[in-house]
Amino acid sequence: MKKIDISVIPGDGIGKEVMPEALKVLETVAEVHGGLSFSFKHYPWSCDYYIEHNKMMPEDGLDQLKESDAVFLSAVGDPNLVPDHISLWGLLVKIRREFEQVINIRPAKQMKGIQSPLVHPNDFDLIVVRENSEGEYSEVGGRIHRGEDEVAIQNAVFTRKGVERAVEYGFQLAQNRRGHVTSATKSNGIVHSMPFWDSVFESVAEKYPDVKTASNHIDALASFFVTRPQEFDVIVASNLFGDILTDVGAAIMGSIGIAPAANININGKYPSMFEPVHGSAPDIYGKGIANPIGQIWTGKMMLDHFGEHELGNTLLQVIEEVLQDGIKTPDIGGTSSTTEVSDAIVTRLKTLK
Ligand SMILES: NC(=O)c1ccc[n+]([C@@H]2O[C@H](COP(=O)([O-])OP(=O)(O)OC[C@H]3O[C@@H](n4cnc5c(N)ncnc54)[C@H](O)[C@@H]3O)[C@@H](O)[C@H]2O)c1
Ligand SMILES: O=C(O)C[C@@H](O)C(=O)O
Ligand SMILES: [K+]
Ligand SMILES: [Mn+2]
């Protein structure tokens, strides 16, 4: 029996609604497999936890998580309780950084059973590799003075190692896909870091003569995601560009509620973390209508990570079948509830036993 230990952090808002549904699906996946079992350890770290303890997680929180094979997280943030930069940097960004999850991968593809808002979606299937440890997300800088003389400075940090490993990861992914990598740049406006990014991209590209390349400024690239997404295979992007681009990727699929993501530790020292692209969605929390597919598809990425590709692909296929049956939450035009969608996925999975 292959046993996988998973740390579970539902976090805030709809995270608390979609996480139990995804766990239910994973339990069923294990049953169908027969030789696989999950053990889930639950952590209540969230903005509610912050209100009680004045921190997002305990001092030894990372030590607790380190013992598991993976972290399965949903969403962090409740701006009514804790300012977003404090909640995110105290939990989500902290785990990404301390566990050296330097790569964030976020696929987007046209899904059967969902009407893309694009008139001609043309079967797009792409994956964004987001640099996940540096770039525009930096603590370097500060604020001085008050009133009309106030100044805020935020320094972006781009290291050769950081850019190289993200770009390399993209090329390696492309070799097992359709052999094309696009670089998201902005070297026309950002005069130091982006020409540097371009030069690292070009030098890595030389090592992969079999992979075709392109480079687009991020503004144009965002528009191409809308006008011709089918032309992209792998896209490599800095932390902020990747963040924004993957919300666009989610939007052209039909909803941010279905987009999955993985924060990958590539040196094997710490567990990787799996969490959907979406946040805690305070505007719909408590209504029972959050789309659970982002969290469930993220579970599929976790199965892939542990080498269970066949089972992962089956799960994605089942998700599409349920969507084609019209069992959908309101964000993608349906009338079903969160649990109706996950129950339908569970029921279909069980027929495979
Ligand atoms: N990785 C993360 O944990 C993460 C990601 C994004 C935002 N956040 C945090 O979440 C909070 C809300 O942020 P936001 O409003 O900018 O982004 P959001 O992703 O929470 O919501 C954006 C919009 O998408 C909708 N949406 C999101 N997930 C959905 C789902 N599963 N089903 C149906 N609709 C869904 C919401 O209702 C909202 O209208 C903030 O505190 C923010 O910092 C956290
Ligand atoms: O990384 C962030 O900025 C948080 C959130 O927007 C995300 O995409 O995970
Ligand atoms: K998330
Ligand atoms: Mn984001």
Automatic annotation (TrEMBL):
Its cofactor is Mn(2+); Mg(2+). GO terms for molecular function: tartrate dehydrogenase activity. The keyword Iron does not apply. It comes from the Bacteria. Gene3D superfamilies: Isopropylmalate Dehydrogenase (3.40.718.10). It is an enzyme of class 1 (oxidoreductase). It catalyses: (R)-malate + NAD(+) = pyruvate + CO2 + NADH. Residues 5-345 form the Isopropylmalate dehydrogenase-like domain. Belongs to the isocitrate and isopropylmalate dehydrogenases family. This is D-malate dehydrogenase (decarboxylating). It comes from Halobacillus amylolyticus. The lineage of its organism: Bacteria, Bacillati, Bacillota, Bacilli, Bacillales.
